[in-house]
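Supplementary Methods, section 5.1.

A reviewer requested that the exact input to the structure prediction be made available. We therefore reproduce it here, unchanged from the version used in the analyses.
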Amino acid sequence: MKKYIAEFIGTFTLVFLGCGTAMLVGCDAVNGGGYILTALAFGLTIVGMAYCVGNISGCHINPAVSLGVLLSGGMTAKDFIGYVISQCLGATAGSALLLGIFSLGGVEDMTGGLGSNGLAGVNGSAVAGLLVELVLTFIFVLTILGVTDKDAGHGSFGGVVIGFTLTLVHILGIGLTGTSVNPARSFGPALIAAISGNGAPMACLWVFIVAPLAGAALAAVVYKFLKEAKAK
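The structure derived from this sequence is encoded token-by-token as follows.
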């Protein structure tokens, strides 16, 4: 149960700080500073959480990461289900708190949807969105599997590497899809946005569930293949 609570806290924090920053500064391509600030918010949150709850749950705070770990033999199916539920609940709670703060404080949400992901940057193309999210998640999860591999001997710097990698994929992905690479991060804001009267993010939510999970599965298969090839 403590692992699940840790995943709830970690995902709550990721959405609250990451999506909250996006809501506050906006992600307009004309104002590139918003891109950088949002990317850093997500990346630095991962760094902080890695050294906060990482020793308890592994700091997945992302169903795609959990799937990659599951397929790599690093967790049980029971824990995977528990992790995903906790992550989605944490993301939803973080989004609900953001809605409350921005509504009560009269602060404008510069994203228009609680930092939800969308396909505006790829002109509404679900295929393009799927490709973007699949590739970015593949890169992110492949990095995680390599950095956290006990045989690699990367020591205690894994959290920093993972955080900077998340920042990097955000820098490219924000202008295209808002960067998900995390089904829970997409689910929470889309659900609360719909409840608050903006149901638009729900229409393309499936893209940000299917693509990250597919990218994570591909990363697990590729990493296993590369590791086995090296051992020969």
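The two ends are 40 Å apart (CA to CA). These observations are discussed further in the main text.
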